[in-house]
């Protein structure tokens, strides 16, 4: 009864296997930074950051401990497969019961199937199923119950007539299982029946809802009511874990992403376009024409290395990375720091990402803004807003009537230098798509960019 998910499903536009690999990466390393930088999983760091946020918002990762929740562990261990529509699964089950009938009527068979019990997703009549969960109760036919050697001689005669039968056997009793399974499942077992249990022992231990659908003593197929557990069950065995169910993946309301993903969540905040874009690609050069040596992303956990400047605003705390994050560009001679503030408003027809700026500081109490510090801060701002907006677009697409998405940037009226060199530049970078905003291959309306 292991959890499986349909390989065709999408969560925020990503395949479930991507979430599975991300969760396993976090389980292995314990580091969000390592997760977003899984190059074998994510084409770009922004994809890793978006998936990590979705894991938080869908209850797969605990917000406080950053450990996998029970739901996260279920997804991490789940198998990806093409799930089968309910109607087809029911038809396959009907065909299987026909094989059970044929086996019980076959005078050459060595086993009877006395009972077939159904449980799991098909019993619950879910829209699609990953497995047909059955438990069989099999017994040897009376003529072989006390004549094991005679049964083996009979099986050897049957096997000699089957061209693709194995020629070597690890155990003598393997032949009995093989010849019966061949009659029940054919030459190649359909994947949906991979979890069929050869006895009712586990079903009894699990103590889960089930229904008897075949009883040889009563003539074959039956339509008994659903039972809360097998009649022989005395409650769940304490050593047996509860069956894994597909967790509820409905997300909590969307919020700005933790901007520290840009620095891979490392507390020293270094920004490396080479790592963000997986190399000095055209996209990296479009946004950062030169390597941003002095650029840092600073939250409450900011721990700069060496004698790097720490703006006074950071001492006041309240920089959680989501509602507020400090963008710092400094050397030993000059520096600029400003706080980017973000919030998301959601409505039936429009989702808006509002961005504004506060707490402007200059290094060494300089009066004049050093123009060379601003472009890298503008580029980092545009990157953060672009990825926020892309995630909003992915999330809104899950709704029946997808609202449009807009980035609204509030200007700085009392500082013309910042207005022209920072705010207008951020607006231009987004408007011209110097940094990609919409997901690759996006066909619907593009995200609007406005300056207020």
Provide the fold topology.
Layout: E1 4-6, H1 16-29, H2 32-36, H3 45-57, H4 70-77, E2 79-81, E3 84-85, H5 86-105, E4 111-119, E5 128-129, E6 133-140, H6 142-145, H7 148-159, H8 174-185, H9 201-206, E7 210-215, E8 220-221, H10 273-276, H11 282-287, E9 295-298, E10 324-330, E11 335-346, E12 350-362, H12 374-396, E13 404-409, H13 416-431, E14 448-451
Parallel strand pairs: 1-2, 12-13, 13-14
Antiparallel strand pairs: 3-5, 4-6, 4-7, 7-8, 9-10, 10-11, 11-12
Helix pairs in contact: 1-3, 1-4, 5-8, 12-13
- Strand ordering within the main sheet: 9-10-11-12-13-14
Which geometry do the CA atoms define?
Answer: elongated
Rounded average pLDDT: 92
In angstroms, what separates the terminal alpha carbons? 55 Å
Number of helices: 13
Percent helix among the residues? Answer: 25-40%
List low-confidence stretches.
Answer: none
User: Number of domains in the coordinates?
Assistant: 3
Amount of beta strand: 15-25%
The secondary-structure element order is EHHHHEEHEEEHHHHEEHHEEEEHEHE
Largest sheet: 6 strands, mixed
Radius of gyration from the alpha-carbon trace, in angstroms = 31 Å
Structural class: alpha+beta
Count of DSSP strands: 14
């Amino acid at each position: 009864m292991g959890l499986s998910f349909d390989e065709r499903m999408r969560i925020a536009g990503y395949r479930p296997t991507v979430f599975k690999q991300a969760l396993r990466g976090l389980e292995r390393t314990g580091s969000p930074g390592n997760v977003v930088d899984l190059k074998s999983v994510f084409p770009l760091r922004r994809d890793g950051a978006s998936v990590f946020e979705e894991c938080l918002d869908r209850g797969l990762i605990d917000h406080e401990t950053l450990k996998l929740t029970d739901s996260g562990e279920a997804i991490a261990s789940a198998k990806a497969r093409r799930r089968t529509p309910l109607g087809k699964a029911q038809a396959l089950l009907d065909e299987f019961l026909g094989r059970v009938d044929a086996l019980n009527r076959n005078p050459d068979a060595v086993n009877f199937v006395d009972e077939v019990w159904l449980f799991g997703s098909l019993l619950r009549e879910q829209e699609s199923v990953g497995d047909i969960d059955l438990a069989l109760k099999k017994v040897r036919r009376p003529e072989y119950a006390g004549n094991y050697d005679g049964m083996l001689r009979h099986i050897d005669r049957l096997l000699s007539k089957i061209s693709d039968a194995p020629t070597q056997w690890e155990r003598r009793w393997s032949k009995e299982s093989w010849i019966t399974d061949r009659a029940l499942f054919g030459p190649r077992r359909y994947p949906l029946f991979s979890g069929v249990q050869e006895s009712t022992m586990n079903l009894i231990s699990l103590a889960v809802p089930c229904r008897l659908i075949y009883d040889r003593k009563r003539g074959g197929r039956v339509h008994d009511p659903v039972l809360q557990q097998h009649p022989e069950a005395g409650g769940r065995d304490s050593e047996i874990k509860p069956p894994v169910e597909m967790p509820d993946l409905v997300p909590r309301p969307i919020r700005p992403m933790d901007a520290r993903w840009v620095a891979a969540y490392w507390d020293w905040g270094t920004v490396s376009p080479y790592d963000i874009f997986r190399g000095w690609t055209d996209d990296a050069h479009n946004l950062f024409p030169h390597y941003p040596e002095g650029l840092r992303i600073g939250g409450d956990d900011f721990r700069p290395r060496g004698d790097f400047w720490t703006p006074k605003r950071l001492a006041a705390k309240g920089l959680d990375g989501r509602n507020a994050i400090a963008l710092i560009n400094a050397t030993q001679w000059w520096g600029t720091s400003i706080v980017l503030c973000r919030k998301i408003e959601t409505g039936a027809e429009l989702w808006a990402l509002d961005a504004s700026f506060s707490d402007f500081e200059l290094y060494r109490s300089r009066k004049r803004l050093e123009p060379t510090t601003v472009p890298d801060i503008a580029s980092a701002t545009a990157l953060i807003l672009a990825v926020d907006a892309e995630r909003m677009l992915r999330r809104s697409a899950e709704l029946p009537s997808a609202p449009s998405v807009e980035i609204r940037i509030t200007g700085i009226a009392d500082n013309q230098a910042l207005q022209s060199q920072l705010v207008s530049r951020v607006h231009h970078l987004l408007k011209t798509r110097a940094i990609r905003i919409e997901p690759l291959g996006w066909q619907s309306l593009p995200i609007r960019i406005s300056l207020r």
